[in-house]
Amino acid sequence: MDTDGIPSPLAEQYRRGDKLLCWLLPIYAAAALALALLRDAPGLSLGAATAWTLAAIVPGLALAALQAGTLAARLAVTFSLTALVVLHIQISGGMIEFHFGVFVTLALVMVYLDWRPIVFAAALFAVHHVGFDRLQAAGFGLYCLRQPDFGTIVLHALYVVMQTAFEVVFVVWLARDVRGNAEVAQLAKRLSDGDRITLDVADAQVQAPLATELKAILLRMAAALRTVREA
Questions:
Q1: Left (φ > 0), alpha (ψ -120 to 50) or beta: where does 94 sit?
Q2: What is residue 143's three-state secondary structure?
Q3: Bridge partners, 192 (sequence order)
Q4: What pLDDT score does 178 carry?
Q5: Is the Cα torsion angle 182, 186, 191, 192 positive or negative in sign?
Q6: Whole-angstrom Cα distance, residue 109 to residue 121?
Q7: How far is residue 108 from each of residues 5, 65, 85, 163, 202, measured CA to CA in Å?
Q8: Three-state secondary structure call for residue 140
Q9: Under a CB-based contact definition with an 8 Å cutoff, are residues 208 and 179 in contact?
Q10: CB 98 within 8 A of CB 132
Q11: Using one digit for the tens of pLDDT, what is the confidence trace for 202-221?
C-alpha cells in the first residue's frame, strides 16, 4: 500500500508517472526560457520568466523526489506542468498556437491512471483562462489570447471539458483493468510455495471483481481439501 491507501500495483504506476513527467518538466522550462529569449516583444521579461519558471518547476520536482508515488506528488507535478504552459502562453503574448500545450498536458497526465490529476489540471487551466482573460481586458498586462475574448474562452473550455470527461472515463476503466490483472497475478504467485501448491489466500487483499471471484474459488477449493483430509 502507498501513502494514499492504494493497492501496490497502482502505486508503482504512480511512481513511474512521477519519473516520466519529471523528465518533461525541464523540457517545458527550457522552452519557456528559449521563448523569452527569442520573442521580439515577449509578454514577460526574461528575468520575470526565469523567476516564474523556477517557481513553477520546484514544487513538482521536490514532491516527486521526496514523496514519489503519493497523491501530493502527482498533484504537484501536474501543477508544475500547467504553470509552465501558462508561462508559455504569457510570454508569447497569447498566441493561439501555445494553447495546444493545454491539450498535450491533459493527455500526458493520463500516465498516472488516476482521474484526479486530470481534473486538477483542467481546473487550473479553466481558472487561468477566465482569470487572465478578464485581467487582460482590464489592462493588467496578462495574456490568454492576443485580445480578450470571453466567447472564445468559453469555446476553449468546452473542448477542455470534453477531453477531460473522456480521459477520466478512460483512465478509470484502464486503472480497474490494471488493478485486476495485478491482483490475479498476485493470487497466482501465492499458489506457489516452493515445490508445493498452497490454496491459503485468505489474507490476500483484492478488490477487482475477477480477482475477488478467483479468491473465492480458491478458498472453496481449500475448504473442500480440508474436508477430504479430515474425512
A1: left
A2: coil
A3: 197
A4: 77
A5: positive
A6: 8
A7: 24, 19, 13, 12, 38
A8: coil
A9: yes
A10: no
A11: 566 666 666 666 667 776 77
The three cell numbers locating residue 217: 474459488
Q: Alpha helices of the chain — where are they, by DSSP H?
A: 8-38, 46-66, 71-91, 100-108, 115-137, 150-191, 209-230
Pick the residue with more confidence: 78 or 174? 78
Q: Tell me how far apart the alpha carbons of residues 186 and 227 are, in angstroms, rounded to a whole number.
A: 26
> Which of the 8 DSSP states describes residue 2?
-
- Residue type (1 letter), 215: K
Cα 196 from Cα 122, distance rounded (Å)? 52
Which pLDDT band holds residue 3 (cuts at 50, 70, 90)? Answer: very low
| Residue 24: HSE in the Cβ half-sphere, 13 Å Cα cutoff | 19
Query: CA 13 to CA 117: how far, in whole Å?
Result: 14
What is the Cα–Cα distance from 138 to 142, expressed in whole angstroms? 9
Digit-coded pLDDT (tens) for 147-186: 999 999 999 999 999 999 999 999 998 888 777 667 666 6
Concatenated DSSP letters for 166-228? HHHHHHHHHHHHHHHHHHHHHHHHHHEETTEE----TT----SHHHHHHHHHHHHHHHHHHHH
Q: What is the pTM of this model?
A: 0.82
- Residue whose C-alpha cell is 487572465: 132
Question: Measured between alpha carbons, how far is 152 from 145 in angstroms, rounded to an integer?
Answer: 9
* 57 and 24 Cβ atoms separated by less than 8 Å: no
- The Cα–Cα gap between 82 and 99 comes to 11
